[in-house]
Amino acid sequence: MSNKEVKAALKSARDAIRNKEYKEALKHCKAVLKQEKNNYNAWVFIGVAAAELEQPDQAKGAYKKAIELEPNQLLAWQGLANLYEKSNQTDVKGDLADVYQKLLELYESGDKQKWCDVCNKLVELYHQEKKYLEVAETWQKLIQIKQEEGAEKAELHELWKKMIQLLKDSTQNRDNKTEQSLLTAFEHAVNSADTVPGEDHQNLYKDFIQCLSKLPHETARLEKACNDMMALYPTVSYPLEVLCLHFIQSGTLSEEALHCFSRLLEMDASSGPGIIGFGIKCLQEKKYKEAVKSLTEGLQKTTQCPAAWHYLAEAQMKIHKHRDAVLSCNQALDALGTPEGPSLRWKNLILQLKAEALIKIADADAAEEAIKSLEQIVDASSDPVVLAIRGQAYLNKGLMDQASKISQELLLSHPDLAESHALEGFIHYSQKNYEQAERSFLNAIERKAETAEYHQYLGLTYWFMSDETKKDKGKALTQFLKAAKLDSYLGSVFCYLGNYYRDIAGDRSRARGCYKKAFELDGTDEESGTAAVDLSMELGDMGTALSILNEVTEKASTGTAKWAWLHRGLYYLRNGQPSQAVADLQAALRADPKDSNCWESLGEAYLSRGSYSTALKSFRKASELNPELVYSVYRAAAVEQILGKYENAIATYQQILKKTEDYVPALKG
């Protein structure tokens, strides 16, 4: 076959392909290859025909042979790209990417439009495969070529925006390079927008800031983006909210942060981050109740802020709402999810605070939970303060040996740490070794004089110490007063001050004030509530007594606050209001149905009301629960007498006289 015949055969093959006569085309090509086995065009035409006849392997082989012969010729590469694009097999995607790469190389010096088309296809392919770094690098190359061609600003803006779309969902498996490419795309996009300010531009800025807020190491860039957006959109609160949340999470509250909080509240008084920021400011200024109020309100609007939950728990601890603090710590841990980096520091802080709150609750179950919290702290064993907390948890749980072991270790390794001596003091105090406890608490105070709890426990140590200090409780008083001055929310210390003024100094008025304060601080402190009511009544101040009782009974749920119902019932009974007395005494019995004295008082209230049958039942119930209550047995007989049940009454009187011969009311009866 001459050169002329080869050309004719190739022309026939091309015409056959054009006419979709693919088998015919193959015949012509094979004839050519018999003569010239390295004919590039013949191999390319075989590739085209075989592909159309759905013989992909033969087509692929033909294209590859052509490429082998002339690696820098376009036709075979284009054919191979078409073949792979039509293939349903997933394993060809890697090969297709290589083909596109080669086509880019071949088009680069020539047809720029085709280069861009292939580039788009390659990026799409990488995107499907989640190869985000390759997406970023290829797309940036496309933008570079467009810039070299002198593309319009608007076109470039759209390209940067497309790059953001391509890389936006790469969060899960994004490496640092891809991350930086995404941020670069955002920066170019916000700076190349045409209509500024405008709605699209504003949304783009929001997306940029949202993206930065998820990257803990990009704080400087985040602050800059927020400030830049605020300058462009002074009435939009979003960048300020993100900035405030950033300051809250960072845990350091600078002047700039406080300025942001107040600026945000001026712009939007109902903004969650703004209200949280104000709460943190109150916490810093030691306005703990306002802090709790603001942080609680802010967290209802912005729930997923672990640092804010931690600040709330801190404020709740300051006012000794320990159970509330535990709940806030749990919310903080939920909001953290699976922490890493800076979040891990928050997790450790939250777990430690939770353990401290649980220890203040002071029961064995809470101690067990505290130990579990401490076990989750990373590097807990190297932190002496955490160890001291663990020692207290063991002590609360009654595990004296473990607590003592930690105490001894801490005194050896950290003799200058107040917590080491305090733990030793708590152990001695619980064992009534008051002299050793005194020494330990004095050592703790020497190292940390501002801790109210140490002064409180030293005061208690003096209170119970020896006969000398029992006679002269002045040393205890001094420590209680110091504790109260250092921590005006420490309810228990005001209760002890009340005990001192009532039992030692005989100053009922001052004692009443201390008990009242203790009860206001801790509504569950029945001892202080009862003492405040009793002293108010002794001092003839019924108004104060009743206002305390009314406040407790209004809040009380069924079956609780027995002491308040009982006190108010007795008050009504003494003041000739039997119906109210009945209602209150019944409420007291719902809390404690086995209180014989309460049944006796209820009997009196029914009797005063003229309800003789129910009075009789109440007196009988009282004497059933406590047969020693002679008065209840006598009152039952007296009621039987009123009801005309004389035989029963006589029998009951005789029963009393058998036990107590000279019980005058029974003799009279």
TrEMBL record:
<keyword id="KW-0802">TPR repeat</keyword>
<dbReference type="InterPro" id="IPR039226">
    <property type="entry name" value="Ski3/TTC37"/>
</dbReference>
<feature type="repeat" description="TPR">
    <location>
        <begin position="562"/>
        <end position="595"/>
    </location>
</feature>
<feature type="repeat" description="TPR">
    <location>
        <begin position="596"/>
        <end position="629"/>
    </location>
</feature>
<dbReference type="GO" id="GO:0055087">
    <property type="term" value="C:Ski complex"/>
</dbReference>
<dbReference type="InterPro" id="IPR011990">
    <property type="entry name" value="TPR-like_helical_dom_sf"/>
</dbReference>
<dbReference type="InterPro" id="IPR019734">
    <property type="entry name" value="TPR_rpt"/>
</dbReference>
<dbReference type="GO" id="GO:0006401">
    <property type="term" value="P:RNA catabolic process"/>
</dbReference>
<protein>
    <submittedName>
        <fullName>TTC37 protein</fullName>
    </submittedName>
</protein>
<feature type="coiled-coil region">
    <location>
        <begin position="3"/>
        <end position="39"/>
    </location>
</feature>
<dbReference type="Pfam" id="PF13432">
    <property type="entry name" value="TPR_16"/>
</dbReference>
<keyword id="KW-0175">Coiled coil</keyword>
<dbReference type="Pfam" id="PF13181">
    <property type="entry name" value="TPR_8"/>
</dbReference>
<feature type="repeat" description="TPR">
    <location>
        <begin position="40"/>
        <end position="73"/>
    </location>
</feature>
<keyword id="KW-0677">Repeat</keyword>
